[in-house]
Design brief:
The structure is a homodimer. By secondary structure, chain A is of the alpha/beta class. The first copy, chain A, contains seven helices and eleven strands. Chain A has a seven-stranded mixed beta sheet, with helices on both faces. A two-stranded antiparallel sheet of chain A has the order 3-4.
């Protein structure tokens, strides 16, 4: 049962070929902590097929979205899902706007590099990503933090991959609800960090 | 891209109210390791809605299933999903048969208690579960192992919850492919254990 604890909302953008667990593990932690989230398909309809052939029906499609209703734009990784996110103009124009100060941008795995770094959004920022893409952070003017599962620099929060998705969820709970709420949810997910 | 490494197959049973990440994180690790898996809905159709209101369309429905095609029956937790699994007669009769030697049974979170322990299947076995349900293991003749994320006793493999699902996936890869394959997939998921 969902018990809302904040009015701050998260939009998670799912593409065909996304890494579904990177998306859903973050949303799981947020749901349990009472943070309203919507899954948003960037395809023409609500159905997406993940990189592991899991079929998910999203809450909304991107053309239905009022971005002003959200405080966080969340980009999961996976291939070719991340490439699809980077090519989605209605999405990346809003990612630019949020990164410039309109909200929080969270990205995991390939997304910090393929979406954020390549758009210049990590310039002067500390960030992390999937190890295979970490070179792009420095190449695009950022400061790589390779030894942490999640890295926050102001309004940009990045994480490394499927195995660190829970850490990203906890960081978002800490920001959107409270650090105590992030501690409180750990036993409920049997956090094994 | 899926590259099959074994002919041994896993059936994951999804109910309305299941904990989707407990199911999908295990399947993610298996997919990456080349283990063929099917998601199987125990409702009358392929669509299920998880305990966190995620809509997943399964590969099959249980009435289409030939259980002899599978080597592992995998039961995720979540509420009321686990109660729904326990009440699904076509499923639990096969769980009994697999536990008796026809194959492997894997269960996580509430499922080791609510499905396996309550059916007497953990009698004389070492097992674990979600901390809130661990008392049922001893009450039903099993030996609780509380300090491990995943416990194997012969053909029954149990795990504690969402935060330990990756460990269950790795244990299944070790069994179905090889211990080396389980090591090999860890960097690919950015394992942070």
């Amino acid at each position: 049962m969902f018990k809302q604890t904040t009015n701050r909302r998260v939009a998670a953008f799912l593409a065909d070929g996304c890494e579904e667990v990177e998306a859903l593990a973050v949303l799981d932690v947020l749901f349990r902590s009472g943070v309203p989230c919507d899954t948003v398909s960037i395809t023409g309809n609500r159905d997406i097929v993940s990189s592991h052939e899991i079929h998910v029906t999203c809450d909304k499609t991107i053309d239905q979205l009022n971005f002003d209703d959200y405080d966080v734009l969340f980009l999961p990784g996976g291939m070719p899902g991340t490439t699809n996110l980077a090519a989605c103009q209605p999405l990346v124009s809003q990612v630019d706007r949020f990164a410039a100060g309109a909200g929080i941008v969270a990205a995991i795995c390939a997304a910090p590099a393929v979406v954020l770094a390549r758009r210049g959004l990590l310039k002067g920022r500390r960030a992390t990503s999937n190890p295979n893409f970490q070179h792009e952070i420095a190449e695009n003017g950022g400061t790589l933090v390779a030894d942490q599962p999640v890295v926050r620099d102001g309004n940009i929060i990045t994480s490394q991959g499927m195995g660190t998705a829970i850490y990203l969820g906890l960081e978002l709970v800490s920001e959107l609800v409270s650090p105590q709420a992030a501690e409180d949810v750990k036993p409920r997910i049997v956090f094994w960090g």
